[in-house]
Structures are given as structure tokens and as C-alpha cells.
Sequence to fold (934 residues):
Amino acid sequence: MDDGIDMSEGLRPFFEPKSVVIIGASRTPGKAGYEIIKNILANEYEGKIYLVNPKAKEILGFKSYSSVKDISDVIDLAVFIIPADATVQALKECAEKGIKAVVIASGGYAEVGEDGASLQDEILKIARESGVRIIGPNTSGITSTPNKLTTTFFPLGKIRRGPIAYVAQTGNFATHTMKWILTGENFGVSRVVGLGNKCDVDDAEVLEFLGEDPETKAVMFYIEGFKDARRLLEVAKKVSKSKPIIALKGGRTTAGIQAAFSHTASLASNDALVDALFRQAGIIRVQNYSDLINVAKALAFQPIPRGKSLALLAPSGAMGVIAADTCESLGLKVAELSENTLSRIREISAPWITIRNPVDIWAAVTTQEVETAYRVGMEAVLDDEHIDAIVVILLMTREIGPKHLNFIPEVSQRYKAKPVLVTITGDKELYEEAKSFLETRAIPVYYRLEDAFEALAIMYRCGQNLW
Amino acid sequence: MDDGIDMSEGLRPFFEPKSVVIIGASRTPGKAGYEIIKNILANEYEGKIYLVNPKAKEILGFKSYSSVKDISDVIDLAVFIIPADATVQALKECAEKGIKAVVIASGGYAEVGEDGASLQDEILKIARESGVRIIGPNTSGITSTPNKLTTTFFPLGKIRRGPIAYVAQTGNFATHTMKWILTGENFGVSRVVGLGNKCDVDDAEVLEFLGEDPETKAVMFYIEGFKDARRLLEVAKKVSKSKPIIALKGGRTTAGIQAAFSHTASLASNDALVDALFRQAGIIRVQNYSDLINVAKALAFQPIPRGKSLALLAPSGAMGVIAADTCESLGLKVAELSENTLSRIREISAPWITIRNPVDIWAAVTTQEVETAYRVGMEAVLDDEHIDAIVVILLMTREIGPKHLNFIPEVSQRYKAKPVLVTITGDKELYEEAKSFLETRAIPVYYRLEDAFEALAIMYRCGQNLW
Fold:
């Protein structure tokens, strides 16, 4: 950083390596040095893969080398899955070999005490002298879907490509939370970075890379402690003008602070100062772990609303009341609909009901097909200039639910500037079917009614930075 | 009410009728008068079923009568699925026949304007003079699982029996929300009451019945407006000393109040007064619709915690930090574990990690089977006298998750006084399997990490009324 390296170019070998070497490859299924190879293969990495393990001749069909020095090809990225005490030697060899980027997955450094800390200082010194850049140590590393690469050893399989980046001071988002996203959600990621001990590359530098990354539309952060808060502030200030940055700060309660200290040796931050820092930086702070998934999904699929005026389509009066309360208690607005909008909905509705926002769409279902009622309702409110976004509450049962949901992505496509979010009541099995159908067509679906509104409220805050 | 009827006895024919007549039975699938019969059959009602429809001779194998007067047997409960203007005549006939309880499902009364309101007054007058009690009009009516009966016309199928009662000023909880509970959850209900326009039977009277109902362990309310707030206060004060009463008040924001007025003609309540009323009455107020399901599940399966000191078992350091923050920001406490507890967990853990609460259980997984790690961890913290409840965060993948979850209900059974709640990260498909396995063994599982803590925080507030 201090010697004027182009940071952003400096991270390119991590995300776009043409060749990668796993130092500490293993023949044993379940071991990190084996699972990482499985993950790389599952993601169909198109660059060259080299393995180093002096005790093996071949692993998973690849030749295994005794040392990185024995490999004649140029190598862009090395991943270390070796004991801490073997790192210095390996790092020196990588430097000699001209490798510019190293992910140190293994632990046993600053997080375990003084000996580890001085070892970490030593490897940092080697890196600085040789120009090698390090992510980690103690990290799940990097995922870069445009390059079909992951350095994660947690069994993930194929990682879905998409516009969301995760940067976390924990392996969670490259490991079990990523598995949750891959199996329970339908949006994809561009880059995932587990920063680990941040001995070299830190949040700010990664954010700078992501700010200019055409593959990344929004950045989700999990942070326990700040390495260089001032620099993060500077970079975020710039990036947040063009891309949403959402952050969950771990360690905001007494118990959380203590846990964060045990976890990443992060020192307590004054929570009001964190608020102030994030606000200045244009980082949208969230308080729930789930938000990091729910908001990512909305940002992956839908535009950011231009304002906070919502229309709600509900399948019953009570759901309308509940949704209206949820909406307004989160700072969003249940907007008044124009006379034209109201009359378009009245035309298809039973006469005994007062049409207003939230729209009780069941008043139309008594005279129309469920599908028609929802479709006409959606079009009417999306045409309304007072409306910035809509939440549709679908009622689904085998007997009465909208069986053909195609109209939802179809309508949404025609109103590109206004986000459409869906939540569902009724039959849980149909929820799963509908979620899969709609989300693979870019309509985010929420299990919990409140989550749709929370995602929209956070998206609205993102928009405040953009225009 | 005013003439000294034993209220509580007065509702018995609604919940425990030995015979029921559907006035307005229909031959047409999809129509309310047909679906109600399907629901009654699906629930295997053991009493006698009579149908009235002058245009039909037989429906679904049952004889159809022209009038209730033609039925010679004694009838306990009548359900009206007939147009509003046919109610007066039908009600008079029911009174003559000696029927004591009538559910008026049909709409077209006070909720549609002045004419409807005077019709509603007229039927109330008939009821008062004849001693017939009415639930409704404009309601999905009654479900009473111990008696295998429902008067709901929304296609529900078999309704699972359990200890939770729902009382709602909306059909939601007897219709699509009940479908959601039946298909997405695993707990059961005792009684479900959709109060509709509350022309006669109201919240207070139902609550009095439920207070003495041995089938009901907790009461979940959805209220938009109060009929007789003073009486509700009196009854709730008594009932809340022995059973949790949880309530969501619809209409707490400007938009919600307007929507509630359109929905049930409920007038705005000063929200601070609602708070005060609930507090005095021992009613636990919740703010989210989802809470009415999440808390019900916890109360159905687990004991109420004696205090707010929690132990958390997490599969990673970051999940521990996140869980600790969630726990404490909801007013619960991440308790200090006793030395004995810590050393029991240390014994099975890798030496490099500091054991504390939240317990990073993955430190034990490096030396133990996942199952053993979690089991020993659970036992250690449940034995700790400082701990009132635990939240277990399971990490599940095909490769590394606890494959045999039987130990969780087994351990929970041995510590009956301390609630155990579970949330899951990792593979979503395994989440579904685990949820089904655990919940059918009385361990509540939450999709969203935050929901487990929110449910516990609300349970803790329930406990404050009980001891």
C-alpha cells in the first residue's frame, strides 16, 4: 500500500488467475486439501491446476509435485493448505517462482496468540519484500464465478454466478452460508472473499477492486473489526455512489463484542462511531444476518426503488392491514393510489368492497380468475406514478392459487424501474414451487412477509446514496 | 351477557357439538357450502352431520333436507352459508328447533354498510330473545380439533391437533394461515375461532372459554378493534396468570389503521393505550405476523424459560458473534458458563480455541464426531444452573452435518424445564428434513436465525406473567 502498487490491479491474480497451485493437496476425502480440488473441479475452472504434495504422485488424476519449484509453467495464484510452520518456506519458494498472489487458508497465526502473530509478521515481511500479495491467513479464500474458480475447501459444488459480492471477516459466507444460498436461494454471486486475518489484503482494497468490477452490482459485508477504518471510509465513499454496500457489523452488544474478540481478536468499536462511519461512507448498515441474504436477493433480481411509496396487493383484508403496518413501521409508505388506478381495479372487483391501498385482491377474485385479478391489479398499480415499488402477497393452494405464475415476471419485465417483491401464504409446498419458478425469473420471493418489506426498506436506503 | 347466562358453558355447543347442520349446503365443488362438508369429512367428525338445501336431495352421500325443521334429531350447532337476507328466517327456525349455537359464515352485514348493520341488529335481537348464541356473521367460524370439527370452508383437509388456540378478527387464521401452518409447520391447534363481526360472541368470552379449556396451553390473538376492552382486560388478567396470551394488534400505523377500517370497520385505537391495556391484562404484544406462528410453535413444543439466560451452540465463531448480538439486542442474556461447564466442553475441544458462551462447537468437531460434539455441548450447558434456555445452530451438509439428530430430542427430554430451540445453516434440503424430523419430536426449528431468538424473547415475557 505504502509503496504505490496499483492495488486494484494487484488483486487481479486472485480473481482471474490463469493457473493455480494447491500447496498441501491431499488424497484424503474430507480433508481441506482434497475438498478444495473437488470444489475447483466442480466449478469447471478453465485455467491450469497444479498440485503440490511431496508424499503423493497423483491426486484425482492430477500429477502431484514435490515443490512449486518443480513446476515449469507460470503460476498466477497459490493456495496454501499447509501447517503454519511450513508457510515461510513455501512462501519463499512461491516468491522465487514469481507467483504474485497467495491465499493462505491454514490457521495458526495471529488468531492463536503471540507465536502465531510473529509468524504472521514474518510472512508479511517476505510478502512485502518480494511483492507477493496475501489473502489471509486463516481464511476460506476466494470465489470468483466469472473465472469459475473457488479456493474454498468447504464442500460447495458448483457456485451459481450472479451480481452479488460477499466480503466477510469470517469463512461463513464462503462456506455454510454460501451452501445455504446455493441450496435455498436462486441468486448468484460474482466474488466471495473471506478475508481471514487480513495480514495484507483488507476490506478497503477488496472494496476498491469490487467498485470497478463489472461483474459486481452490490457488495455485502460482514465485519467484526476494522483494520484501516479511514481507508475503508475513503473507498466506500466513492464506491457507494455507484453500487450499494450493505454491512452487518458483528459485535454490537456486550456479548457480541466478547464473542468477536474470541473469534477474530477484534477490539470493541463504539457502536455509535460505527454508525457514523458507515453513514459517512454510504455503507448501509443492517442488523440481521438474514438481511445479508434477503437484501442480496432483492438487489440481484430487481431495480432499486426511486422512492418509498409502495402499493400492496393482499389476498385478504387482514393481510392488507398486517402488510400496511409492517410497511409503515419500517419507514416505507403505503401510497394513495390515483383515481384512475382505483377505477381500473374497481372494474374487476366485487362492488361491496372499498378499493384502496393495500388492495384486497380477493375482491376481484370473486369475479375473475385469480391470475387475472393479480395481473390487472399489478398493472394498475405499476402504471400509477405515485408508486415506486410493489409487494405482492400471493395466496396459493392446490384449489385456488394462481396456478400459472408466468404473468408476474412478464408484468415485472414491462415495468423495469419498479421493483416487484413477492411473499406467499397458503400451501407451503406450493410456496417452494412458486419460489423456484419466480426466482429463476428474477422475482424475489420471501418466506416471511416481513422480510419482503425489510429488503425493500434497505434497498430504498441504498437508493438514497445513488441519486 | 347481561342476563346472567353462564358464558363459558354457553360456548360449549360451538366447540363440542354432538350434531351439526349446514344450512346452505352445496353440490358444487369450490362453493363454500360444499367445501365445508369436505372439511368436516376430512377431519373425521364423529357427531351427526345434517345438510339443508331445498334444491338438493343428496350431497356427498348425505340426505339433504328442505329445512332444519324437517330434521327429527336434536342438533347442537348450525352453520349458515346462506345469503344475508335468508338469515332471519333460518335463525328463527333454528331457535324453534332448539339449536343453541349458530355460526354465521356468510357476509353482507355490518361490514357492508347501514342496511347490513340493521340486519345484523335484527338477528342479534332474535338470538337474545331465543337464547341462541351466534359466532359471526362474516366469519370462517370454528375449528375444534379435540372434537374433530371445523366449520371452515377454505380447503384445509385434516387439521392437526395440538395445544395452541388462535382467536382472530379475520378468517386468516382459519384459512390460508392455517393452511400455511398445516403444510409448513408441525405443531397443532386446539381451537381456532374466526370472530367475524362479533355481533354476539366476542374475544373476551372466547378467551374465558379457552382459559378453562384443558386442550389449550396458549392463546394467539389477532385483533383489529375492541368490542368491550374492559371485559377483555378483566378476563385476560385472570387467564394470563396460567396461560400465555400473545396478541398482534392490526392497525398500529396510519396506513394500517385505514386498512383496518376498510376491513373490519375497526376504529383507530391510541397505540399507547393498546400497549397499556395489554400490559395490564398480561397480554404479550408482538409486532410481526410471523411471530404468531413462530411463538406458537415454541410454546407448543417447549417449556417457558424460567429466566433469560441463554447458552448458544454455534458451528463457527462468526455465527456465535451474530447469535450473541441477536440474543442481547432482544433483551435476552448470553450467560457466563460455570467453570465446570467450560471444562466439560474443553475436554472435547481442540486446545487452540477459547471456550466461552457462545460455544463454538466446531472446536469440538475437529476432535469428535459432529453428533458427539453437539450432544456433549448441549448436556454441559443444560446442566449449568446459570442457563435457562438454549439455542442450537446446526450446520448441515451431506458431508459433515449431524446425520443422526435423535440425540437432540433425547437430550431435550432429559432437561424438561429448559427450552431447546434450533436453527440451521448449510444445506437447505437437509434443513427441511431436519425440521420435519425434529419438530415431530417437539424440537422447534427456525428458518431464520433471528426467529429462534425472537420466539424465546417472547416466551420469556410470557413467563413474567406466570411466576
About this structure: Chain A touches chain B through 77 residues (CB under 8 Å).
